[in-house]
Amino acid sequence: MEKYDLFEEVFVHVMGHVLGVGTLWNLAPFFDRTLRGGSDSNPYFLGKQANVFWNREGGTLELQIEGDYGPGTALGHWDEEILNNELMTGFINLGENPLSRITAGSMKDLGYGAASVGESYNLPKGTAGVDIHDLGNEGTADNPGLHIAKMEVLLKPVGFVNIKK
């Protein structure tokens, strides 16, 4: 990560998971919210706020969740093929990896009091992502980057805590 000057972006990416991006989307029966719909091979995000920003950025229908690349990537990140270099896809790219309003909206969908702001991100004109057909840890000469999610293990909560008021 240091070699590619990506440590800070990887850190923020991992903190996104700690706060619930990809890890708290579907936790029935612990929570009465379901933010992931569709099948495991074609999942999509059900949260209203993230989908509002997805549509404002030029997307249509519901925002796709990654269904490929196996454990650590699938079902816990935005779809790389669609969102390219957004910070919460399963790939960290050289160059810019913006934390978009889409991800900020998903934080609201998780119940956080998040601001509806994010780094500049234009869906049709986003920085080229890693070649999704290259399953190695590094991208190609044209699209260098790291398949960061291949090195992740997403742990789901094993219970919850009741707080007396």
Task: Describe what is shown at a glance.
This protein has 165 residues and is of the alpha+beta class. The protein is built from four helices and four strands. The protein has helices at residues 7-19, 48-56, 80-83, 101-109, and strands at 36-39, 42-45, 92-93, 145-146.
Q: What can you tell me about this protein's structure?
A:
- The protein is an alpha+beta fold.
- It has one domain (7-151).
- It contains four helices and four strands, in the order αββααβαβ.
- It has helices at 7-19, 48-56, 80-83, 101-109; strands spanning 36-39, 42-45, 92-93, 145-146.
- The strands form two sheets. A two-stranded antiparallel sheet has the order 1-2. The chain has a two-stranded antiparallel ribbon with strand order 3-4.
- Helix 2 runs antiparallel to helix 4 (101-109).
- The longest helix is centred in the first third of the chain and has 13 residues, at 7-19.
- The chain is globular, with a radius of gyration of 15 Å.
- The protein starts with 6 loop residues before the first helix and ends in a 19-residue tail after the last strand.
